[in-house]
Amino acid sequence: MSENNQELHHPSQNKQGAEKIMPYNAGQAKGEQVETMFDSIAPAYDLMNSLMSLGMHTRWRNKALKMALERLSRPAKDVLDVATGTGDLIFALADRLPASELTGIDLSEGMLEKAREKMQSLPAMDRRRIRFMQADCLALPFPDDAFDLITVAYGVRNFEDTLQGYREMLRVLRPGGVICVVELACPDSALPLAGYKLYTRGLIPVAGKLISGDSRAYSYLHKSIEAAPQRERMAAIMKEAGFSRPKWKALFPGVVCIYLAYKKK
Description:
There is one protein chain. By secondary structure, the chain is α/β, with parallel strands linked by helices. It contains 10 helices and 7 strands. It has helices at residues 30-41, 45-52, 57-71, 88-96, 109-119, 124-127, 162-172, 190-212, 215-227, 232-241; strands spanning 78-82, 101-106, 130-134, 147-153, 173-184, 244-251, 256-262. It has a 7-stranded mixed beta sheet with strand order 3-2-1-4-5-7-6, sandwiched between helices. Helix 4 (88-96) links the parallel strand 1 (78-82) and strand 2 (101-106). The longest helix has 23 residues, at 190-212. The chain is globular and about 45 Å long. The protein starts with 29 loop residues before the first helix and ends with a strand.
């Protein structure tokens, strides 16, 4: 795939929801703070994911990929993973799509370094068809209609401008292509919600400080989840951005939602 240079996007000053939640409140733009945060926690990121989700994050990811691949109307020749982190979703796709070219982007070079390290354990034929690159989801460095499948796992609530992020992903998705978003959510019933708040507001920041050394990153986690668009609201933003037939599914006990949509042919 060829690349082109897009003009830098300047996010709207009329921020709402998770767009207003900052990791550090340091006077920088959210994107800059998110980059700094993930650089900071990159060494502990995989371990914290396993601990926080009680090992369920792999099952959630696999369920989302199964749903996305079932909706493809043609082979996914080119795949983009936005906010790829340490690359786990890309590696899972490599197993499922042996003929695809796979690109993972992230703001954080620290996270990408971990992804590239992990990639070295893959067979040479897989390493040749995977690339990781630093890029901003609000100004993707790809031409229009470049990918058949786009995935985002736990990244949308970190976007500085949610609607613009979706519009950029729509632009680079080929007509008929599928987008799959996995995002954390709050349970929508009282008892699970009470337990969720105790866990995410109390235990996770303490564990985050002990393991990663950055308690603010894991305090930001619950604040950004609670402020982010969820369920019908997230699907409505996808539709506003131009995606067709957005659907969502909450996974037990309601702490994760999978969103799927298409680009019109």
